[in-house]
Amino acid sequence: MAKIIAGVGSSHVPAIGAALDNGRTEEPYWQRVFSGFEKSKEWMAKTRPDVAIVVYNDHASAFSVDLIPTFALGCAAEFPPADEGWGPRPVPVVKGHPQLAAHIAQSVILDEFDITVVNKMEVDHGLTVPLNLLCGRKEPNEEWPFKVIPLAVNVVMYPPPTGHRCYMLGKAIKKAVESCREDLEVVIFGTGGLSHQISGPRAGLINSKWDKTFLDNLTRDPKKLTRIPHIEYMREAGAEGIEMVMWLIMRGALDEDVNEVYRFYTVPASNTAVGHIILENKRRPAAKGKRSASPTKRAAQVTKLAVRRSKR
Ligand code: DHB
Ligand code: FE
Question: According to the model, what pLDDT value does residue 4 have?
């Protein structure tokens, strides 16, 4: 049985990708940002999911204003990095999981979420920057450590989906994954945000108080967040703060009760408040075969898990 084991929220600021690609991560400005993801990289290396569903938004890279799907699920075998004006980022091609993606598409569409099936798509910083933050820098000839199912959400042109719709889609994705018979551990990413506005008279707007309340409620009371109207995101978190509705898809796909195992917040990176959170479902499935070849190793893993749990 497939299972969603954890959710990751992460900003996707393009300048973070440029800092990585241009070898500037040691500069104090960028060190402040990257240092907040050191523990997350350790967590990811330990968690080793088979698949990540990455909820992100395309920034007019794969879709132009000619065609804007509200929810677009990547069902292809691979997704190359998009050319966003400076050539494609020097990162590995993202490998998909067509079988699980097709299963999710069927399940959520039969559940009345009419998503768009995408069989060919390039992915931009919205997806590749969070992958780098959680997996580190990767050369184009390397591989990302897990398969990725991209879920592109329209937050670029009015009207984006409501927070409630996003949360309910997350629940439908949870049901879809749990009805897949393959033995897969899945992590779901919500990306974008936090508060930022990149143009107009309010360019540079950041609202840390609002961001912090959003993160607090994301863990403890996500239903409260589902009632926030678009206008409040725009007013309080800036025009691009609307990206935060995507975090509600991630949260909806988790259990109601979660453990917040990590949080990081820093201001600013480029024009944006960088927010990051890791939420684990409390009920993790038993250690899988591939993770514990020998019975002793399995026993050791279970003990380690128990110790980790008792420390919480
Ligand atoms: C910035 C942030 C974004 O999320 C984005 O998509 C583009 C630019 C910024 O901070 O400059
Ligand atoms: Fe963005």
Answer: 98
User: Where residue 243 falls among pLDDT bands split at 50, 70, 90?
Assistant: very high
The residues, ordered by sequence, that sit 6+ positions from 21 with a Cβ below 8 Å of its Cβ are: 89, 90
Is residue 29 within a helix (H) or strand (E), and if so which, with residue range? helix 28-34
For residue range 92-114, what is the model confidence (pLDDT) as tens digits?
A: 999 999 999 999 999 999 999 99
Residues 250 and 260 sit within 8 Å (Cβ to Cβ): no
pLDDT single digits (tens) 285-306 = 555 555 543 344 444 444 444 4
**271 Cβ closer than 6 Å to some ligand 1 atom:** yes
The answer to pTM > 0.85 is yes
Best mutation site among 10, 13, 246 for ligand 1, i.e. most ligand atoms within 8 A of its Cβ?
13
Q: What is the pLDDT of residues 120-158, one digit of tens each?
A: 999 999 999 999 999 999 999 999 999 999 999 999 999
CA angle 81, 125, 104 (to 5 degrees): 75
Name the residue among 312, 290, 311 with its Cα closest to residue 301. 290
Q: Is the CB of 103 under 6 A from ligand 1?
A: no
Give Cα 17 distance to the centre of its chain: 15
- Give the sign of the dihedral formed by CA 37, CA 41, CA 46, CA 47: positive
How many angstroms is it from 14 CA to the middle of ligand 1? 6
